[in-house]
Amino acid sequence: MSELIDGTAPTGSPNGAQAGPRPDGSGPGGGRLRLMAVHAHPDDESSKGAATMARYVAEGVDVLVVTCTGGERGDILNPAMERPEVRADIARVRQEEMARAREILGVDQRWLGFVDSGFPEGDPPPPLPEGCFALEPLEKAAEPLVRAVREFRPHVILTYDEKGGYPHPDHVKTHEVSVEAFEAAGDPDRYPGTGEPWQPLKLYYHMTFTRERILTLHEAMLDAGLESPYGDWIKGFDDRPQLWEVTTRVPCADYFEIRDKALLAHATQIDPNGSWFACPLDLQREAWPTEDYHLARSLVDTELPEDDLFAGIREKVSV
C-alpha cells in the first residue's frame, strides 16, 4: 500500500497505510490535499458541487473531475443551441463546453471514455442502447476509475447516492463505480495492472437538490416579491423521499458566481434564461450559502455535522 499523503510512510490502516496532512493543507512531506469528483456527464460537475470545488481550488487543493461519459445522447436544453450543425457534432461540442467549464472552475478533468446511455422515456421505457455505460459490467466500468484513483490519489471522493441523485442510468452507474473504486483502489489484490494501491479516506454523496434547500430558496424569493420557479419542484418532493441526511455543509457562497459561469459554459445544456438563474445570487448567498453532502464512508475520525470535506484529514488520520 502506498502512502496516503505525499512523503508519509504507511503505518497501519486496514490496507496498511495511515498518514495526515498539516492544518495548512500540506502533509508532513509537503503533499497537497486532493479532491476527486466523479460525474456522469459534462455539465454535472457544474450543477453539483461546483462552488465547493472552486473554493478548494482557491485554497490550494488539487481537484480532479472525472467524467464517465461524453454526454453524446443528452438533449439540447437551450433553444439557442438547437441548430443542425450542433446536433450533428454534439460529442465534440460537449467536449469543448467541458474544456471551458474546467478552465473557469480551475480544476483538472479526465474522461473515462464510456458512451452516454441516454435517459429512457416511455411506458414501458425502451431498452438501453447496446454498448452504453449503464450496461457495462461493473469491473469493466470501474477499472479506469480505479486507475484514475491510484494515479491522482485523492483523499476525498464526491459522487451520487444509489439513486443517482435522480434516476438517470448513467448517474446510478456512476454511483456504483465510485463505490467500487473507493473500496477497491487500496487493495493490492484487486484490479492488477492499474497502478500502486491508494486508499481514499472519505466518500461523499451530493445533496444538492434537497427539499429543505429548494423550499428555503422558494420562500426567500416570495418574501422578496419575486416569482419563484420552485413550486413544482416542491410538489415533486412528496413522491421522492430523501434517502440520506445532510452531514456536511460547505460554505462556498463567494464562489456561486464562478459556479454559474461554469454552468453557462455548457451552452447546449443550460438555458441562460431558465430556472437555474431565477434566484438572484445575493439572495442565494443570504438564504443558503452552502453546498451540502452526505458522508457515506470515512476512514478518519470526524464529528458531525461538518463544514469541511477534509475534516479529520487536515489535522490527523486515525483508522
TrEMBL record:
Catalytic reactions on record: mycothiol S-conjugate + H2O = an N-acetyl-L-cysteine-S-conjugate + 1D-myo-inositol 2-amino-2-deoxy-alpha-D-glucopyranoside
Keyword Zinc: yes
Cofactor note: Binds 1 zinc ion per subunit.
Signal peptide from the UniProt entry: none
EC number in record: 3.5.1.115
InterPro entries: GlcNAc_PI_deacetylase-related, LmbE-like_dom_sf, Mca
Tagged with keyword Translocase: no
Alphabetical keyword list: Hydrolase, Metal-binding, Zinc
Enzyme class: hydrolase
Cofactors, names only: Zn(2+)
Record text on subunit structure and interactions: Monomer.
Function in brief: A mycothiol (MSH, N-acetylcysteinyl-glucosaminyl-inositol) S-conjugate amidase, it recycles conjugated MSH to the N-acetyl cysteine conjugate (AcCys S-conjugate, a mercapturic acid) and the MSH precursor. Involved in MSH-dependent detoxification of a number of alkylating agents and antibiotics.
Family the UniProt entry places it in: Belongs to the MshB deacetylase family. Mca subfamily.
Protein's UniProt name: Mycothiol S-conjugate amidase
Organism placement in taxonomy: Bacteria, Bacillati, Actinomycetota, Actinomycetes, Streptosporangiales
